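User: I want to check something. If I give you two sequences, will you return the structure for each one separately, not as a complex?

Assistant: Yes, each is folded on its own. Here is the first sequence with its structure:
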Amino acid sequence: MNYNGGNTTGFASPAGDNLEGRIDLAAMLDLSRPSRYPVRVAGDALASRGIFAGDILIADAASPPAHGKVAVVMLNGAVLVGQLAYRQQQWWLASGVEGTAPIAVAGDDAEIWAVVTGLIRTQV
């Protein structure tokens, strides 16, 4: 939907000089790339990182894992989202919940599936 400030009643808004064109989120987030996926967050384990239940993460399966990045990890059949850390020659996944120990991302049943590159919040 486009907003056209000229179709209002009353006086013209001074903000009308600064109107942008249409915002295409799919293009902005590069969702046409085959490696990019939207992932909806369940739970508030990453609230300390500003990620809340209901948020939509843009996960890129082609992005390499990096220390400190938020990632989607497959672990023993479960899909988890957390912050990556690399230490002791392996990857670890930490939630933002204080007192929760990081989980080693190791073994045949563990895979860093994608790195989070963006966030969409539909509720403010």
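And separately, the second sequence with its own structure:
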Amino acid sequence: MQKNKKELRLHYKNLRAALSLDDLEEKSLAIANNLIKLPIWDKTYYHVFLPIEEQKEVNTEYILHLLSGKDKEIVVSKSDFDTRGMTHFLLTDNTKIKKNEYNIPEPVNGLPVPSATIDVVFVPLLAFDLSGNRVGYGKGFYDKFLAECKPETIKIGLSFFEAETEIEDVFESDVKLDYCVTPEKVYSF
């Protein structure tokens, strides 16, 4: 059954809201464990989103531990709501993180990293389909950012839930995922 982005957004926001904090932690850990199976660990720069707790996003702390254990360069972003653009910074021990007005944890300062340098991006989403299309919050931040990355950048969606068959209102400008990882399995597109 096809669904449009608006319906999917609402449906998955409700599903996420119903998750207990224990569910959220357990599923986030399972996602991190499934990531280990992907052929992505020979890269250098990994972009990770810091979760909006109020939205019950995937807790990426487990992924951060994985990356720092493998000695990778970790990149986090700051969003500009006027331009719908994102600026990226190297996450170091000195990086100060502060929530913005939308409760998004962001670096206050740091060493800038150009989008074209990033090798792997872990992408937040609400839903995805079997073709690698994703539904986010609809603001276009990630589509814009992923379009600035080099073509070979690996895009990995993280989802608590399994794939929809098809998202009906996909746009030309929507950037597809290469993988999507759920607590149950790894989808490859």
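Because they were folded independently, the notes below concern the second chain alone. The chain has one domain: 5-188. The first strand starts at residue 45 and ends at 47.
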